[in-house]
Amino acid sequence: xxxxxxxxxxxxxxxxxxxxxxxxxxxxxxxxxxxxxxxxxxxxxxxxxxxxxxxxxxxxxxxxxxxxxxxxxxxxxxxxxxxxxxxxxxxxxxxxxxxxxxxxxxxxxxxxxxxxxxxxxxxxxxxxxxxxxxxxxxxxxxxxxxxxxxxxxxxxxxxxxxxxxxxxxxxxxxxxxxxxxxxxxxxxxxxxxxxxxxxxxxxxxxxxxxxxxxxxxxxxxxxxxxxxxxxxxxxxxxxxxxxxxxxxxxxxxxxxxxxxxxxxxxxxxxxxxxxxxxxxxxxxxxxxxxxxxxxxxxxxxxxxxxxxxxxxxxxxxxxxxxxxxxxxxxxxxxxxxxxxxxxxxxxxxxxxxxxxxxxxxxxxxxxxxxxxxxxxxxxxxxxxxxxxxxxxxxxxxxxxxxxxxxxxxxxxxxxxxxxxxxxxxxxxxxxxxxxxxxxxxxxxxxxxxxxxxxxxxxxxxxxxxxxxxxxxxxxxxxxxxxxxxxxxxxxxxxxxxxxxxxxxxxxxxxxxxxxxxxxxxxxxxxxxxxxxxxxxxxxxxxxxxxxxxxxxx
Length: 553
Prior knowledge:
By secondary structure, this protein is of the alpha/beta class. The chain contains 19 helices and 19 strands. The strands form five sheets. It has a nine-stranded mixed beta sheet with strand order 9-8-10-11-19-18-17-14-15, sandwiched between helices. The protein has a three-stranded parallel beta sheet with strand order 3-6-7, with helices on both faces. The chain has a three-stranded mixed beta sheet with strand order 12-13-16, covered by helices on one side. A hairpin with a 6-residue loop joins strand 17 (448-452) and strand 18. It is globular, with a radius of gyration of 26 Å.
């Protein structure tokens, strides 16, 4: 999937590469999904083809209906029985998201399958919530219902009738608009929910509660008497705290796909989780890596100056993952600037490899040090292709999923941030690694490899010990960050950018288990901002985050 078209590829514990929507579900629900929770057209057709090759259809003509539609229903029913919340037994309710727009060719077999499924399981076992847009004409402020009317008509024409309408709009729906939708869409007015713009995403559950969305779902599924009223004290607290964040922390993200923020969605969310834990309002400056390069200075001087101005004004620098050689030199320059000017730095996946290359070039004096991904003939390959990788098949051949990293140095920052554990499990997605033959030279020059895999030959974490915060990791810590439990390394980056890192590390070293009303506190001791005892720095890990420039999940 192109990052510019679909956003990031989210990686699951089992190595599944899935759409970013599953990342949203994991973050919001704090569950661990599997690759089977992601149903695609390709998976379904491959499933049917495999059955046909085995002779399961006994020579019958294999068609979209019933074989593809049956396979979709079989997949849903099978996966719905698998618990994902750590509890035993199947869930009471399974949520199925059918993405896309009514009329899309790609979704037609799925719509037909769900139409058959709803008829087969019967009323009381299937609740269809149709999400639709109600645009507002800015000139006159009128809410237009025609898009929703047409989408419901198309949906009903395909055999599905919505029980509830969830209408997305900039403002709350007027009562007369609800009545009009009810009349034309055959949905009762009390079952039409309006989701309008709010200051931060944590207000949405409160909107749903106030409009009794839960009661509408309970009524359709006949769960009256078994379901409980939603307990939203925690959500209310989150919404209120998010609205009160004012002190900024500015982070520069130096990447290739900065034109679409969804390309780094999990990175952005992990930064938000950490910034709110530090009671700071996150400001993200998107810096196109190629704009930092010397060639841009010649060709686009204004873009070059703007990129460097953003980088130099940042409190911290983050270089995320990526593939290909475009912008690599700019990322190297960003890593060098952060290292030499003692700016807090976090490199993820390619970002860590970039940091190693820059260190070899600048400190070891190996001017041609590079990755074989970008220069196969380099005489000083700092980064090499993993031996077990495939050079002929690109798809699904990377080192994927949850892998274990063992800490090598007991007093390093990364180990302290992870609570002084001996090992951690984080998710990976890469096919290149640090050249183990160069590790000794890099270590002798001052680069510390604080985390390695179980063999001791695959480098997982790097640090520059004398730097306030300069860490690179081969894995992707952003995929396991949660609102109530921020990623340790992102928390370290934000804390370092706010001059709170020492307090955070001291809290980890001396903390005792403290039960908090929301989540787990980092410490029950006083910590101080900027080294002064005149102002307390609130370090929390409750499930709160907000994006300063809009409404985000």
